[in-house]
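Question: Send over one sample?
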Amino acid sequence: MINLSELTALCEKLGCKIIPECPLKEYVTFRLGGSCRALISVNSAVSAVELLKYLKAGGIKYGVLGRGSNVLPADEGFDGVILLFGSDFSNITMEGTTIKCQAGTLLASACVHAQQRGLTGMENLFGIPGTVGGALYMNAGAYGSEMKDVVVSAQYIDENCNICDISIEDMELSYRHSFFSDRDCIITSVTMKLTEGDPDAVKAAMTECMGKRSSKQPLEYPSAGSTFKRPEGSYASKLIDQCGLKGMSRGGAQVSEKHAGFVINTGDATCSDVLELCSDIIKIVKEKTGYTLELEPVILK
């Protein structure tokens, strides 16, 4: 049972903003889903620890959001508290060729900061629509680069509400997976090591990367990016296209005609629309190609 007045008082003490009955569609890139009982904008690792201790002690259900670029909130909403690691938790510090970001920092912002300092190594990550914390959580990547190529260490809150440090050697980073994926913990900061380069050359590479995205991906529509993980031995978009599923729709959800790997919200999609369409895609691709596709976004319910 959530005592909103008590929770609000705790947030005021910590200096964190709280929004009761918050519509989650405003905080995810797919622009769909119901409301949560309360959304709290976290402003520090210490505040996060205090909030987690309170929620766990009260047996209160909670979830974590960054940019919400890989999340599908259920239509019925989330009967609990969402901890938002966003703009209030996005400080960046730089020393030499090292860049340290709080987990709520947009990955694009980190890339721009690196470019302005003439640091190279993150160009291919520019344009991935998520936070640094979320990107490390799933070892995000694009165009041959992944977070594991630049990360050296991170800080996180473990299941016992302790703030811990971890080096890349212990992060178990692989395709769309990390140490954090299998545990009840929250990333609070990420440290990356880059190399010196020419600012103009780095900017040109970032512009080229964004140009590729704009020309090939349906960025004009709400989505969660690539909808399915890459199956071993092939590509989800290739298999979906091969099965003739471009343009296939359920309600307001549609397989993009521009890029078969994207399920998009054409305007009024529900979470149920998306899941029904994805279920049909998985079934058809399995029947026609033998490959089993796996959904990449996390369902928040």
Q: What stands out?
A: The radius of gyration is 20 Å.
